Structure formats: C-alpha cells, structure tokens
Amino acid sequence: MTAEIQLLVRADDIGSSHAANLACVKALRDGIARSVEIMAPCSWFPEAVSLLKDLPAGRDVGVHLTLTSEWPNVKWRPLTHCPSLTDELGYFLPRIWPRFDGDLCLRNRPWKRDEVEAEFRAQIELCQAQLPELNHLSYHMGCNDADPRIGTLCRELAVEYELAADPFAAGFKSIPLAPKSEIANTTERLHQALSCLQPGKWILIDHPSLDNEEMQGICNVNGRKIARERQHFTDACCSPSLLELIRHRNIQLVSYAARG
Q1: CB environment 224-254: b (16+ within 10 A), e (fewer)
Q2: 211 burial level (CB within 10 Å; 0-12, 13-18, 19+)
Q3: What is the phi/psi pair of residue 228, to 5°?
Q4: Are 7 and 205 spatial neighbours (Cβ–Cβ below 8 Å)?
Q5: What would the DSSP string read from start to end of 164-209?
Q6: Which carries the bigger pLDDT value, residue 82 or residue 224?
Q7: Rounded Cα gap, residues 227 and 215, in angstroms
Q8: Tens digits of per-residue pLDDT, 151-202?
Q9: Helix (H, G, I), strand (E, B) or coil at 224
Q10: Which InterPro entries match (predicted)?
Q11: Cβ–Cβ under 8 Å, residues 96 and 170
Q12: Region 205-212 average pLDDT
C-alpha cells in the first residue's frame, strides 16, 4: 500500500472480559480499529470467538500471547501444565518485571523455556482452529521482551505458524500523543495527534472496554479509574469528529494484512 499516511489501530485484550469483548467489536465495526488481539487463556475467550465471526473487510485478528494475570480480582490459568510460570494456586504470575526484591513476577522465577514454548503453541493453535482471520502475533504486557530467549522464541513461532509479528520492524512508529495531564479528553488527544500526523506508517495500541460494574470490579485499582479511561478510548474510536478528520486528511486505516 502506498498511502501517504497509514494508521494501524490495534484493540488489545478481547477475551479478557465481557465488557472488553463488546467494546473491541464496537471499535472494529463502528470505529477506527482495524486489528484486535485475542487472549486465549481468558474465560471470555469463547464469546470473543463468536463475536469475531464475519468481521468487516479490512479487519484482522492476532493471538495476544499471554504469560501474566495482572488483575487482583480476576485470574487466568495457562492452557498447559507449566508450573514454572504460575503461582502456588496455578494462576499466571501477576507481572513480568519486578517492582521490588522477591516480587512475584516472571523475571524473579526460574521459568523454563520449554514450558513457555508449549504454552505459546497451545494458545496459537487454539486460536488458529477457531479464527480464520488470524494472521499475526502480539504480546500481552510485552511478554516477548521478558528475556532475549523468549523474544527469539516468539520470532521463531511467527515464522513457523506464518503469523506476522512486529509492525515496528516493518517501519511503524507509535503516534505521538500529548500527556493525559495536558489533554484529559481522549477524543481531543487523538484529534490533536491525528491532525499533526506526518506522512509515514503509524500505530496506535489501546484497550477498548466499557465503564460498567464488571470492568470497574476488574481494573479500578489503587484509586485509578481504568474502566473509565478505557470507555473514553472506545468512545474516541467511534467519534464522528475523529472519523471525519481521518477522511479529510486521507489517513488510510490499515490492518496487519494490509500493512505495507
């Protein structure tokens, strides 16, 4: 594709909750999202698969490879037996990187590469069996950067399963967004960023969801209203003013399959 400005908008974490499922599909069908990242180990994965049937043209799906379960009130287990990657209850660890000495996280554990590989293969193959639109890999909480050995494994799996893996290696750059402290309104922040976007290939990654009781119970922690932030992003994705700006500037919304 030879468009002057290309924009890949990626909706992460479908399958993680009912609220995320509904919002991700809305952002795909009514808004600017062109790719959605599905989490196979999560309890709302079956509904996500059902909702992703018959996607509009120009949208695609990635396996959001998962090694962590970060929310205190919702926990995810691996698809395989991988004790080096789990806590004493069998849940994925809450984080990749430590916040303090002895923190319960992947980098502080003697994790095993063969268990990571088996788990990643199980997640990929479960998604491939149910989602024909699947065409790339992405990585929850940046798990591919947890260790060079995991990064190498991810690249090898992308080649083996013929799943495009890294838009940044293909020349995409993150869109420059003003700090939230300067522009609190998400639609305004995106409008400002897209108004100033220069020719090139750009990517925007975020987490559509709904600000409802389910999502508030999952992710409103430490005084931060994350459910509200994710609702605002969903609203921005579907904003008529943002869609008009994209049309006016001839910004080409691209999927992984269409990225040049």
Answers
A1: eebbbbbbbbbbbbbbeebeebbeeeebbbb
A2: buried
A3: -65, -40
A4: no
A5: B--TTTTT-EEPP---TTT---HHHHHHHHHHTPPSEEEEEEE---
A6: 82
A7: 6
A8: 999 999 999 999 987 888 889 999 998 887 777 799 999 999 999 999 999 9
A9: coil
A10: Glyco_hydro/deAcase_b/a-brl, YdjC-like
A11: no
A12: 97
Torsions phi, psi for 88 (to 5 deg):
-70, -15
CATH number for the domain formed by residue range(s) 5-253:
3.20.20.370
85 with 67: CB under 8 angstroms?
yes
Integer Cα distance of 243 and 228 in angstroms: 22
Distance CA 190, CA 195 (A): 8
Digit-coded pLDDT (tens) for 9-65 = 999 999 999 999 999 999 999 999 999 999 999 999 999 999 998 888 889 999 999
> Does 3 score more than 70 pLDDT?
no
Tokens of 243: 């869609």
Pairing of strands 60-65, 35-38: parallel
Q: Where are the domains of the chain?
A: 5-253
CB burial readout 59-92, b (16+ within 10 A) else e = bbbbbbbbbbbbbeebbbebbbebeebbeeeebb
What is the pLDDT at residue 2? Answer: 47
Q: Which token pair is 45? A: 């994965």
Of residues 85, 167, 73, the one with CA closest to residue 119: 85
Task: Render pLDDT for 228-238 as a digit per residue (tens, 0 to 9).
Answer: 999 999 999 99
Asked if pLDDT for residue 259 goes beyond 80, the answer is no
